[in-house]
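Section: protein folds

Sequence with per-residue tokens
===
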Amino acid sequence: MSLKRAAGELNVTPAAISHQVKALENYLGVQLFRRRNRGLELTSAARAGLPKLRDGFEALALAVAQMAPERDAGQLTVSSAPSFAARWLMPRLHRFFAARPDVDFRISARTRLNRRGDDTAVERATVESWLEDSEIAILYGHGDYAGYRVDKLFDLTVAPMCSPRLAQGAQPLRVPEDLKYQSLVHDDTGLLYDGISFWDLWLRAAGVENVDTTRGSHFSQPVLAIEAASDALGVVATLPVLAQAEIQAGSLILPFAHEAALQSAYYLVSSKTSSLRPVAGAFRDWLLAEARQK
């Protein structure tokens, strides 16, 4: 969706790309792109043809990959959100290194694209961006990534967590209604991806009312919200799977038994071409086995 980026990939000038686009539109007799302030937008005619064009280019890429000897066989780049990479992947990665010491492993910490549009379009653009320089992407989302190989790692839940000294302090947490006396810490991941805050989601699922979720501190990354709760700055509603280290160490507890299920999950996504690489397949199999143990 950018003449400049397309020109960079093909080592030509943006003017050359623009000329080719105009020639293609003249040949087809339809407009394919509309110019916008921040780039290009596909017309309805272009969107209609895109799936089959993508299938055709994927088929060509698969054929070439099967004919050519594998290059950089021991190198693998994985894109992941910083919180997932730091809190879930890194504590386990030593086991993959032990099993495959021949792999030159690289992690690219990425964040979701901040674009306007429907969730599916934004997720699609995010996948394309993350896989520009990676063979595999680990994404938090809804899993609607047509044209890619997609493996669900695991389902997710949200739960309140806090420091033990806060839970047993001057305003103890005995029942969920006691949250109205506590400072709330917000992990804004839920609002970004699902359109509802983690606090609102959990309170609704638990049947709790009269807790004002408009108050409290907000953090754009789960790791920051977890750190704030560990320091007894308030009670956070976030993913327990990302706070396992704090829970095991006792710096965070789950004061209530109820956990609310999320529609979003973590997915392992790769292009059909990249998924054929033996090293990518080995990492995928290892990661899925780790996810089953969670």
